[in-house]
Write a structure and sequence with these properties.
Blueprint (H helix, E strand, L loop, with lengths): L1 E2 L9 H10 L5 E5 L5 E6 L13 H11 L4 E4 L11 H10 L1 H25 L1
Parallel strand pairs: 2-4
Antiparallel strand pairs: 1-3, 2-3
Helix pairs in contact: 3-4
Length: about 120
């Protein structure tokens, strides 16, 4: 089973090939996020480990695999390391694929300004 959260900015087919290739040697394959979280998790069988969430979940997944005596591989992949719930990661995505993400960044900045103006008005 492959789990990929919906906040991953850029999906690269080559990185999914890397995940699948790593599964040849491991029952648990983790794409590690910049914050130590898990941005993709491949498990065989699907219930091989207990799923964890948040920062440092990658190390928790690795520990769960080891506790279950399963081979585990952690991959640090360029695009799967980013998730757009982090402002810095969204800026990297805008730099790498400006045609795709510029509107997101610009609309987000406009939304933030509008929110701040409303908060000041009601304060």
């Amino acid at each position: 089973m492959l789990i990929v959260p919906s906040d991953i900015a850029m999906l690269d087919p080559a990185e999914f090939v890397a995940l699948m290739s790593a599964a040849n040697d491991a029952s648990v394959v983790i794409a590690v996020a910049k914050d130590g979280g898990t941005n993709a998790l491949l498990t065989s069988p699907p219930d091989a480990i207990q799923f964890e969430y948040g920062c440092d979940s990658a190390s928790a997944h690795q520990a769960n695999a080891l506790n279950n005596r399963l081979a585990c591989r952690s991959l640090h992949l360029r695009n799967l390391a980013l998730d757009i719930d982090q402002g810095d990661d969204l800026n990297v995505a805008v730099t790498r694929q400006p045609e795709r993400f510029k509107a997101w960044r610009d609309n987000g900045a406009t939304l933030m300004k509008t929110t701040l103006i409303k908060e000041r008005h009601y304060a």
